[in-house]
Amino acid sequence: MIDITTIPPSPEEYNALRASVGWPTFSTAAARDGLKNTLFGVCIRERSRLIAYGRVVGDGAITFYIQDVIVLPGWRRRGHAQTILQRLLQYIKNAADPGSVVGLMSAKGTEELYEKFGFVRRPFGDKMGAGMVLI
Q: What's the CATH number where 53 sits?
């Protein structure tokens, strides 16, 4: 059973999800503080197991940054990242003033996903994906 919620993951779940895709993890205290300061987040769980997560950080008015769109490797290509992005962007649409900035940095190889949502690439080099801005 798949459950989509805005209840944030625990710091341990968050770090485990980051580790599953080879991203650095943080101390429990840092992860807790970072998650607490999230403007809006979306968790996807399968039988209470966190399988995907994404969040919006920023000032909540004119600057928004999509962060940590992560899907467990065994759960990719099932539309979970798109579901997360749709919900994050709906939150931003409701919160942002005209002219607000919406950005993200994509993992290498995921740029096309974000382009489908209107983001434009801002290349950084061979090892990284792209900084992207919603126009």
A: 3.40.630.30
